């Protein structure tokens, strides 16, 4: 039987890691439920994604996002407005939800290659948010044009991105502050 130190340093997910991933998915869900309805709803979902990545690291944070999306896809009402199903993911705003996966992967890549410095983490979140915006906007345009007709890029950016930039940057700043306070209390034996 392997010793405790061998089990802790192995690459397999441990029970603690799975618990953190589940808690991360739950935090994202709660963030999605806190909403102000607009074309693309204002939620605390992005705050939760930022916080989960900062607190749990790239691997566990990205896994939390994947679990969150899979729960929603199979019908658990985890999305904004207590919605669920593939229809939400395939709908006009589904690209922004799927974009969270890219945010997590970029965060994981940045911190793996450049280290765990605060500036690297913030840069990773900024780049990830930009990619999420780009993917979500392209997805929105594709779905919107297919169902309602032509729409300009600037119009879609005006609906789906510009109103969210400042609030998302504020959410990111708050997530950085929260993570700085909470991170010392999280057991972190997983190799990111």
List keywords for this structure.
Arp2/3 complex 21 kDa subunit ARPC3; 192 residues; disordered N terminus; mainly alpha; 2 strands; 8 helices; single chain; two-stranded antiparallel ribbon
What does this entry show, briefly?
This protein has eight helices and two strands; from the N terminus they run ααββαααααα. The chain is mainly alpha-helical and 192 residues long.
CATH topology: Arp2/3 complex 21 kDa subunit ARPC3
Number of domains: 1
The CATH architecture can be named as: Orthogonal Bundle
How do the strands line up in the largest sheet? 1-2
The CATH class label is Mainly Alpha
> Any idea what the shape is?
globular
SS summary, helix count: 8
Major sheet characteristics: 2 strands, antiparallel
Order of helices and strands: HHEEHHHHHH
- Percent of residues in helices comes to over 70%
